[in-house]
Design goal:
It is globular, with a radius of gyration of 22 Å. The chain has three domains: 61 residues, no CATH class; 167 residues, 3-Layer(aba) Sandwich (Rossmann fold), CATH 3.40.50; 129 residues, no CATH class. Helix 4 links the parallel strand 1 and strand 2. By secondary structure, it is an alpha+beta fold. It is built from nine helices and 16 strands. This is Ribosome biogenesis GTPase YqeH. GO terms for molecular function: GTP binding.
């Protein structure tokens, strides 16, 4: 903190305490910028990291660990509050916070599925809510209700606010989620709807934008708190750069793509994942990924050579210099018992028939798993 003031100031973008001594730590602001802000008598400060992210889309790493984030979230257990648990519907499995109940204690949980606008319109939303409820309950999370919204487009924000008022019952509201699910975008939308202020909290595609709790006062004297996102290192976002992230993060409604995937065939999802069909009695597969992600089918016996020859060119991302540093693809084998999604966390999924043996490949450290199909046409 600057020698010219004893008051602790906080970045309104990420919540970190402003400091001028360590450029690698959260809240760093050059002393000259802090003096200028103090001289203008403003307390609406952005740290250098948020300033660069907002104006230049440039991410500056900071020395915060996953344990730091978990310690901050642990304070929710002691609070008397409604917990608004935001998940990315497109990456639900990558949005799960392990042991969430340990953080929230006896506080009620309202599950909010964000980015519902990227899912096909023909998927019935009532069915989607039921599916989401089943998925999180399987992880020990018991929401009092499930809401769907699109923070980016402002879909159903008023409906969400009505549910928050219904369940908070005059208490504080804590908004939690893993990185990149759109928590801060959602809170910005709520603030804009109520005050007219836009983009107050820093948001981006990069993981870990919010670094400390950000408190927003409510009309009744209570507060809404944006908490830092739990980092999931298994997400695809951690192995891609900013330009490549644009090719795997849907911004528009995805268009499912159907393939006749038979035995001995491989489907490449860009250069970041692949699916091998080892044994199936029904050659079929439906792909749910960003519309701009290139897809290529080949014989499994040729897949390794195809990848080595074409990664970074015909099959992208990765692109440019990122190719040489991209982690190797690791194989995960599964056998389905019912119509199932083969999920590549942070990328999307491929729905395959029952009784199919498959191998899903993803960068080392990125999870591949199977789950009951989100969109089952039967």
């Amino acid at each position: 903190m600057s020698e010219t003031t004893q008051e602790t100031l906080y970045c309104i973008g990420c919540g970190a305490a402003i400091q001028t001594t360590d450029a690698t730590a959260a809240g760093y602001t050059p002393a000259s910028a802090l003096r200028k802000a103090l001289e203008s008598d403003t307390r609406d400060l952005y740290c250098q990291r948020c300033f660069r992210l907002r104006h230049y889309n440039e991410i500056v790493p900071v020395a915060l660990s996953d344990d730091d984030f978990r310690h901050l979230l642990a304070t929710i257990r002691e609070a008397n509050a409604l917990v608004v648990y935001v998940v990315d519907i497109f990456d639900l499995n990558g949005s799960i916070i392990p042991g969430l109940q340990r953080f929230v204690g006896d506080n009620p949980v309202l599950l909010v599925g964000n980015k519902e606008d990227v899912l096909p319109r023909q998927l019935r939303r009532t069915k989607l809510r039921e599916w989401m409820n089943q998925q999180v309950r399987a992880q020990g999370i018991k929401p009092v209700d499930v809401a769907l919204t699109s923070a980016k487009k402002g879909h159903a924000i008023d409906d969400l606010l009505a549910l928050i008022e219904k369940y908070r019952r005059g208490r504080d509201v804590y908004v939690v989620g893993v990185t990149n699910v759109g928590k801060s975008t959602l809170i910005n939308r709520i603030i804009a709807n109520n005050t007219g202020l836009k983009d107050l909290i820093t948001t981006s595609r990069f993981p870990g934008t919010t670094l400390d709790k950000i408190e927003i006062p409510l009309d009744d004297g209570h507060k809404m708190v944006d908490t830092p996102g739990i980092i999931h290192p298994e997400q695809m976002a951690h192995v891609l750069n900013g330009d490549d992230l644009k090719l795997v993060s849907p911004q528009k409604e995805i268009r499912p793509k159907g393939y006749q995937l038979g035995n001995g065939q491989t489907l490449f999802l860009g250069g970041v994942a692949r699916l091998d069909i080892i044994d199936t009695i029904k050659p079929a597969g439906t792909v749910y990924v960003d519309n701009n992600l290139p897809l290529h089918r080949t014989r499994t016996e040729n897949a390794d050579n195809f990848y080595t020859k074409h990664v970074g060119e015909l099959i992208t991302p990765p692109t440019g210099d990122a190719v040489k540093n991209f982690p190797p693809l690791v194989r995960h084998e599964f056998k389905t018992t019912a119509t199932s999604d083969v999920v590549f966390e942070g990328l999307g999924w491929v729905t395959v028939p029952a009784d199919t043996r498959v191998a899903g490949w993803a960068p080392k450290g990125v999870d591949v798993l199977t789950r009951p199909a989100m969109i089952n046409k039967k």
